[in-house]
Every structure is written in C-alpha cells, then in structure tokens.
Prior knowledge:
alpha+beta; PvuII Endonuclease, Chain A; 5 helices; 38% helix; globular
Amino acid sequence: MKFLSREHQEQILKLDLLWRNLKDIAELAKEQGINDIFQDNGAKTLQQLTILNFKSLPGREGNDAVSNSGAEWEMKSINLDTSASGFSTNHHTNEAIIAKYRKVPWTFAIYRGLLLEEILVMTPDMLDPVFTRWEEKLVRDRMTHLNNPKIPVKFVRENGIKVYPINLENPVDPDKLYP
C-alpha cells in the first residue's frame, strides 16, 4: 500500500474512530488511579477491578486492590497466548514476601490475548501448598530469595473458585470468600 493512498487514508480513519472510543476507557481507568491503559496491563487491570467490584490501591508496592469489605487483594493475570505457564510473583521472593502473600486473598485472571476467559479466587489457605514449597526450597537450597517463582495455571484452575464468567443464577462475590 502506498503512503496516503486511498486505502492508507481509510486505515487511518478507521484507527482514528476506534482510538476515540479508547478515551472512554481511559477516563474510567483514571477513576481507578490507572493513568495509562497501555502501561502495566492497565486496561486489563481496569477490566478485572470492574468485574470484581474492587478499587485499585495506589503505588507499585504492596497489594493491588481493596474490596468493599476493606480486604486487600493480590491480583495476578496471565496471557495463555504467550509461552507463560504460571502466574509471575516477585523477582526477589523471600521469607518476608511469602509471609506477606500469606495474609491476603488472590485473584487470578486468565486471558487469551485481549480476551478474558476466567477469573479465579484463592485464599491464602488454598495457596498454602505453593507457599510451603517455596519456603522449603529457600531452606533446602540455602537461598536468600527465589527469582520470580510461578504459581501454575493448572494449580489455580484445579483449586481456585471461579468468579468469572459470572454465573447469573448463582453469582460468586469474591468479597464474601475471605473473612
């Protein structure tokens, strides 16, 4: 296609029209403290916060969201269209980080590209086998930290509670799953 040919101009117009619609998403994201929907999974985070009825917690340190009850949550997502097989955690996972992880419930959003397939929720007790395995590895291998240990998608799917897609006949409010 030649630069500024009719076909090229039509593509520019189509993109301009679609891009304007992103403005509404960006405005909604700003209400959640997400300044750029194209950075750090901003649009996907907005989608999850909205579905879960959570509010974003500011900053990059600490937990990710807070529910209506005031419980703080750790939020993870994965795109199965990539080579990833597990949810990323922290590049310096040590005993203190694991102790922090044991104090909050978690959400796990599973995507294929841009499409959200499911969200599962797990309490710290449900994640105990993963955390215990990490703690044992730190001791056994005399390590100061683990480099971004993963939580396997298979483990989450087998042990988590599915909250999305929402079952309209029997919806599961994630906020009611954790005291």
